[in-house]
Write the structure tokens for this entry.
Amino acid sequence: MTETSVPSPVVVHRRPAVSDRLRWIFGALILLGLGYWLISAAVDEPERFAQVTVIGLSNGMIYALVALGYTLVYGIIELINFAHGDIFMLGTLQTQSIFADGSLQIPLLFFVISVPLGTAATVSSSGLEKTYAIAMALTVSVVFCLAINAAIERIGYKPLRGQPRLAPLITAIGFSFILQGIGLSWKGEGRIAIPQLIPDTVLIGEGGTLLDFGSFPYYTVRDLMVLLITAPVLIALTLLIQRSKPGKAMRATAQDRDAAAMMGISVDRTISFTFALGGAIAGAGGVVYALYVGTTYFQLGFRLGLIAFTSAVLGGIGNLSGAVLGGVLIGLVAAYNDGFGDARWTYTVIFTILILILVFRPSGLLGERTPEGQ
Amino acid sequence: MSEQAATGGSNLLLELDDIHTYYGSIHALKGISLNVGEGEIVTLIGANGAGKSTTLRSVNGLNHPRRGTIRFRGEDITTKPAHEIVKMGVSQSPEGRHVFPRMSVHENLEMGAYHRDKRKPEYKEDLERVFTLFPRLKERESQKAGTLSGGEQQMLAMGRALMARPSLLLLDEPSMGLAPIFVERIFEIVVEINRQGTPVLLVEQNALMALDVATRGYVMETGHIALEGPAGELKTNEQVRKTYLGED
């Protein structure tokens, strides 16, 4: 008889190392400091604090939508898709075309094909016209970004499957610059205005139509719009991944690729599906951004993409709830720093957070050091 | 099992003909020929690194051979992608179990039937069948698979493979790392699965137990088939007894 060993889970009770304790103490000090700063801001100026919080939450939802794309792709093939932020940027440019010209535009290298879909919309258009423009922007931007991300995967990443992980990473950086080039030749180098369809009518706060109190506008129709688009997208995504067949194939592939193939799942098709899904969410994010923020430009994806990526790492890369949590937290931090600190330091603060997470909690807030974790 | 079939006979289900499989530049299989007939338990025994798991990976499409042909029910599946081979009726419980750790036991079983229609009554029947074979899985139905013990995970991997309603079941080292009491139970279940009509290709290091339940056996040595024959004969073969059954 060959020997059979009994697999007992080995529970090791060890005293935490000194460096572990130091990390905890240091982490706790940082949290206490942040807490003190926020609480004193809230006590000193409670009304402005409320307004800044709402801004942070709305921005955070946009970050979350972009962060989801990073995390979905990372969860399944452990690739940081650096081109993802630029996909989102193209979504904002497409939305701008639809709002400003009423046309869907397909940017080719030196010229742009325009497909008229309706008329340009402005803040004074009728409710029906606005609804049509927003619905059209959502549809077009989602399909547009989905198609680009799927095409990039097909051209740039699929042939590199099985190669060292550095290879597709370099391709991703390359695609990031190519997409920026497309954005540049499409809309030019300056910041371009996006017609604001949603008035910033105050709902809650000073002069609010729902609740009129205080001396600051707290919650506007634009904030509501962000929530009205983001929440259904998040719910649909969760249902898709938990319940649908392709969603289950995604989870299985993320957890164990070989075993997934043995279940009859086409791993290649599942990976392509994941990229398409990530692109679609970035497209929706582009519309939300366009509705909430009045301008965009070709390098938007680089900066916002880095923030969204930081959000994904903060929440635990590969973890969907983590991406949303991370996005909202980073949105809040950025808003508090803009509102109560110094706006010039906001990027520094955000990336300091990224470094601190990587040092103290590499798996992120909700991560278990595993891709995709539910 | 008795030795009713000395060779695969005429009802050949799986045929490997002179298979050469590589890992990069490493020549792992150097001309493997073997077959599995309807109703059989065929075991593939041999030391670590002999190429047993590679043989299964060649069959299930995860590692296509460079030369040779693999036929399933007469159809050439040598270069078919893994997910299509599963649909043809070959399913596997892999070495090291490879359950989906963050899915529940129930979801894991559901994944086993991924390519089948869940609304059909056969799905329910198969689920019942798996729970009858492995009552422990029923008790743990909603638990995450990653929290199961090694033996339970092995049961889950086998149950999941059965959920494909396979016409051929590939089992890779089902007894590896298990307590002796679990090992016996696993082999009883292999016999039971076969008695219910599923042919099994069983890769094992535990040669004695494997030859006890198998109809026929192949002994592998560094990428070759060194010996083959009815399990009873292999068990009494002096060379096998010396090398694999640990007798001097």
Notes: Confidence is low (pLDDT under 50) at residues 1-10, 369-374 of chain A.
